[in-house]
Amino acid sequence: MQSNDQKPPMTSTYSIVGYEPETEKLGVAAQSKFLAIGSIVPYIKWNVGAVATQAQINPTYGPSTLQLLERGNDPEEIVETLTALDSGSVLRQVGIVDAEGRSATYTGEQCIEWAGGICGENYAAQGNLLVNGRTIEEMVKTFKTEEGSLADRLLSSLFAAEEAGGDRRGKQSASLLVYKEGGGYGGFTNKYIDLRVDDSEKPIEDLADLLELFKLYYVESDVEHTPLEGDTLCEVQMLLSDLGYYKGEPSCVFDEKFRQALIDFYHQEDFEQRYPGENTIPQDILQYLRERAHIMEGS
């Protein structure tokens, strides 16, 4: 474990590391008065574990933790190993959750108050340079009681932390990283969600907006699907015509020309991950189509 005697600035941050046993997802969410916090705090390897390293950050904590988890060490043992090898450990903060839900959180005694963490089954929450300890308490409470996906729960935890006090210096950046098996684009990798707001006056709100866009483009949700027949078929055909995907006069007939226009729309608007086949259209995609056509009409 390397330790740099030159002391970089303390990164005032609060973060939460979480595991969702039902889906085997692992995630980390963080917020800080620091530029691009998502570039240095979270580390995840699917089926191994997730880490948040912060305060006076030692970036080697991330990959070192994942290596030790793969070797079978539990999170508490890893904290002891990392800090024993690091002469600057009194300035570090780290949260760890493994793929069995075991967790640990560590706060060095020289981290700037308020500083501390809480961990339990499937989560580890920690922060430094905070307004108060309620910031962490509310983050944990929300994570444990919130409904929805792991990403939704992690994001809601950031909102709760900010509402309870948050970072003493203010707000600047926020991030959300989630891994699940085959969750990457096209199913080729396990990196499912990787969203960052690097510099903003309202980073958590902007992160929430990005998550909604992510769901629209990539997530097969339980949103209602409408059959492409009758009035809906006619409307979609006309909307595709307005946007230039359907060529010629709309016929309200599901023919080869309409099928190709539909495929072109899904691909060119980056909805290929949401394509349900030819017989239905998801309600949120239909609403997007209506809004796009309305914008084109007004331009």
Description:
It is a single chain. By secondary structure, the chain is an alpha+beta fold. The longest helix is centred in the last third of the chain and has 16 residues, at 203-218. The protein is built from eight helices and twelve strands. Strand 3 (42-45) and strand 4 form a beta hairpin. The chain has helices spanning 61-70, 75-84, 134-145, 150-164, 203-218, 230-242, 256-268, 283-298; strands spanning 13-20, 25-32, 42-45, 49-55, 92-98, 103-107, 116-120, 123-127, 173-179, 191-197, 225-227, 280-282. It is 35% helix and 23% strand. The strands form three sheets. The protein has a six-stranded antiparallel beta sheet, covered by helices on one side. Strands 3-4-5-6 form a four-stranded antiparallel beta sheet, covered by helices on one side. GO terms for molecular function: hydrolase activity. InterPro entries: DUF1028 (IPR010430), Ntn_hydrolases_N (IPR029055), PG-bd_2 (IPR014927). Pfam families: DUF1028 (PF06267), PG_binding_2 (PF08823).
